[in-house]
Specification:
Layout (H helix, E strand, L loop, with lengths): L5 E6 L3 E6 L3 H4 L3 E6 L2 E6 L20
Antiparallel strand pairs: 1-2, 3-4
Length: 64
């Protein structure tokens, strides 16, 4: 039987606690977090070749 990966408890007046259980190999990966639209992604740092910042005017919009 699989272990439960997420637990959520709520106590009136105290708030809500959410616990996510990850295997050790997933919980210690260093990553670079990016957001695209409303989604967040983490790219493992050993896969990042180069990182740089762009001003708003330097963004390139690609359309199909």
């Amino acid at each position: 039987m699989k272990e439960q990966m997420k637990e959520q408890t709520t106590e009136e007046g105290a708030g809500t606690t959410v616990r996510i259980h990850l295997p050790l190999t997933l919980s210690i990966i260093d990553g670079f977090m990016i957001d695209i639209g409303k989604s967040l992604y983490v790219i493992p740092l050993d896969m990042v070749v180069k990182c740089f910042s762009l001003s708003r005017n330097e963004y390139l919009k690609v359309t199909s």
